[in-house]
Design brief:
Blueprint lengths: L9 E4 L10 H10 L2 H11 L3 H12 L11 H12 L3 E9 H10 L5 E5 L8 H11 L4 E5 L5 H4 L4 E5 L3 H10 L3 E4 L7 H8 L12 H5 L5 H28 L1 H5 L16 H22 L2 H19 L7 H21 L5 H25 L17 H23 L2 H6 L9 H17 L7 H5 L3 H17 L1
Parallel strand pairs: 1-2, 1-4, 2-3, 4-5, 5-6
Helix pairs in contact: 1-3, 2-3, 11-13, 11-14, 11-15, 14-15, 15-16, 16-17, 16-19, 17-19, 19-21
């Protein structure tokens, strides 16, 4: 960026997409999503005009926590440089004036502010007129990020643009003699979208293959059906992960690691996130109806309903949240059994119930351990740091119960029918127990990532245990 000598005394700065990497109005709509009645009220208020719509959102959603919203560091640096040189900084935003005042309170470097009211939407030509009247004939510079800012740039002595739109950049370089293009920062690439979709979480969907493998009923037809189930489950789960990130923006921004997620950090905007959610959901639904039998579609519908409830409400209710998480794992097994047309063993259901419950408890426990010195309450969850002992006890108890069910299964007639040398299967018990205890040890030491499956995939003990299980089943067969 080329610095030019400042011959103006006022610098007007846009808020949404310029100073902030996000848009306040979209942030408020996400808050309203948790209350369907208020959200519908917002849609009706939109019919009265943009100003009335913004006033409704302010009244019913309030002002988001400005202090944790992602900002453009380069814009802040430019503002600070101007402030140091005696240039007055005025926030000129289409957001409500009350929001502008809150931003001014959080960032004292801002001297004054202009914002919308319940009658006037301060955008485009309206904002341009307001700025000219506020400037009282003095020369000013303006920092903006959108086509709507062109009427303001037309009046400004210095033009500053935050963004990388070819059409806006071309217009600025062609129309203004003094213009500065401000780099918006890291470009959003395929990696950010992959991270937002949580493709690495698709490893959980391999559970759909388990019922057929344990029943020794795998052929090309069944494998094809299970592979399609795996893909559709992945697309549906990814849509829910995107929705989860949308609903969790506030709590994610307060988390030491989650605040770097694509939407929490502002790398991917809320409208793009909503569009991606809708696209993934539509593709998964269409694929399910084209490729999968009705009984599998029914399980997918239950999964979507449960995980949507979990994302919006369930995760905030202590104990119920871990029950729901464990149930979502088990639904993958049920979907796999339905796709392969095999009977799901009651032993496998019993084992999975306690095994996945232990995984759910360790997820919450690791989150508490990671923030025990920073916060008393886990953001967006129903647990405080004092609950860690209870989660540890319940999680380890669930782990032991899963091994007990597995031991009882090994001693059942079902195993004798499936395996020629069933005694070898006993080796699986200490192998899985070792894996579970190692997982809990890593969590207790505060070294676990947010998801236990992903964390354990990075440890050698996981592959050792998998090797033992595979060879044990092979020898037993």
């Amino acid at each position: 960026m080329i610095e030019r000598k400042k011959t103006y005394s006022l610098l007007y700065v846009d808020l949404d997409g310029t100073f902030l990497k996000t848009d306040i109005l979209w942030e408020q709509l996400i808050i309203l999503l948790r209350s369907p009645i208020r959200f519908m009220g917002a849609l009706f208020s939109f019919m009265k005009g943009k100003a009335a719509f913004k006033a409704y959102c302010l009244t019913n959603a309030g002002i988001p926590d400005i202090s944790i919203l992602p900002i453009h560091d380069e814009v802040l640096r430019i503002i600070s440089d101007h402030h140091t040189q005696g240039v007055k900084i005025i926030l000129a935003t289409a957001s409500m004036h009350e929001i502008a005042l809150e931003v001014k309170r959080i960032y004292p470097i801002i001297d004054d502010c202009i914002g919308s009211s319940s009658l006037i939407n301060m955008k485009g030509k309206v904002k341009a007129i307001a700025i000219v009247e506020h400037a009282l004939g003095r020369e000013f510079a303006y920092i903006g990020n959108d086509h709507a800012d062109i009427p303001i740039w037309d009046k400004a002595h210095e033009v500053m643009y935050v963004g990388a739109s070819p059409s806006i950049t071309s217009h600025i370089m062609r129309s203004y003699s003094t213009a500065t293009i401000i780099d918006p920062g890291k470009k959003t690439g395929i990696i950010e979208y992959i991270h937002l979709m949580r493709l690495y979480q698709w490893v959980k969907n391999t559970l759909v293959f388990i019922p057929a493998l344990l029943a020794h009923m795998m052929n090309i037809e069944i494998f094809t059906s299970l592979t399609l189930t795996f893909i559709v489950f992945g697309l549906l789960a990814s849509s829910v992960y995107v929705m989860n990130d949308l609903l969790d923006l506030h709590s994610d921004r307060m988390h030491p690691r989650k605040k770097y997620r694509p939407m929490a950090s502002g790398q991917i905007t809320i409208p793009v996130g909503i569009a991606l959610y809708a696209f993934l959901l539509i593709i998964s639904v269409l694929s399910a109806f084209i490729f999968l039998p009705f009984n599998v579609i029914f399980v997918l519908a239950i999964y979507f309903a449960v995980t949507s409830f979990y994302s919006m409400y369930g995760k905030k209710i202590a104990i119920l949240d871990v029950m729901l998480l464990a149930g979502l794992y088990t639904l993958r097994l049920i979907a796999g059994a339905q796709a392969a047309n095999v009977v799901l063993s009651e032993w496998l259901m019993g084992f999975s119930m306690f095994f996945f419950l232990s995984l759910a408890f360790v997820k919450r426990y690791s989150e508490l351990i990671a923030q025990k010195d920073e916060l008393d309450q886990l953001p967006g969850r129903g647990y405080g740091t004092k609950d860690s002992i209870m989660l540890l006890t319940a999680g380890l108890s669930s782990a032991m119960l899963s091994i007990m069910v597995l031991a009882l299964y090994i001693n059942s007639d079902a195993v004798r029918k499936l395996y020629e040398f069933p005694a070898y299967i006993w080796l699986i018990c200490p192998a899985i127990l070792t894996w579970l205890l190692q997982m809990w040890l890593i969590a207790h030491r505060g070294r676990m990532n947010d998801d236990p499956i992903i964390s354990m995939a990075k440890t050698p003990v996981t592959y050792f245990v998998l090797t033992v299980i595979i060879f044990t089943i092979w020898f037993a067969t």
